[in-house]
Amino acid sequence: MADQELTAAKNVKLGTLIERGVRDLIYTYDMGDNWEHCVFVEAVRSGDADTKYPRFIDGARRCPPEDIGGAPGYENFLDAMANPNHEEHADVIEWYGGPYDRDDIDELITKRRVAAIAIRRAAGKASYAKRRAWSERCGLQTTLTLWPRRPGEKR
Fold it and tell me: For a disulfide at 74, which of 31, 64, 98, 124, Cβ 3.0-4.6 Å?
């Protein structure tokens, strides 16, 4: 991971990175807690035209709760959760809303959440295609041209 350029994830598509030969990257989720994920692209293949993407295939372990305080806060949370004699045990149980098992991944909920993203993505693509087709049928074309203003020139 030689190139350490910081780029906002919302401005980058994974496909674009792959086209540029990027196969390893560090993704930081939640800059405040600094959760860093090393992403390694192992294989690329064509998708199924009848499948909405993204989709959940497999997973291990539950994600840490939001705003837990990064890795150190998560370790403290796990220690307090696992030890009934820990001074913060009752507080973390109450804060989280019950017991927490990091090895218990709820695959059904995860599949539903990822499927909801896929449905919104597919709806957005369909809407874009519909608007584009309508514009082309009507012969509409939008062009935006920007000209720099010369010093002293009024609008």
Answer: 64
Asked if residue 54 has a cis previous peptide bond (ω within 30° of 0), the answer is yes
Yes or no: say if 76 and 88 are a contact pair by the CB < 8 Å rule. yes
In-domain check, residue 39: yes
> Would 34 be classed as within a structural domain?
yes
In a domain, residue 82? The reply is no
Tell whether pTM > 0.90.
Answer: no
How high does pLDDT run on average in the chain?
82
Q: Which of 60, 43, 58 is nearest to 105 (CA)?
A: 60
Q: Please indicate, yes or no, if residue 96 is contained in any of the structural domains.
A: no
User: pLDDT digits over 19-73, tens only?
Assistant: 999 889 888 887 778 888 888 888 888 888 888 888 888 888 888 998 899 899 9
* Beta-carbon-side half-sphere exposure of residue 57 (alpha carbons within 13 Å): 3
Query: Which of these, 101, 43, 30, lies nearest to 69 by C-alpha position?
Result: 30
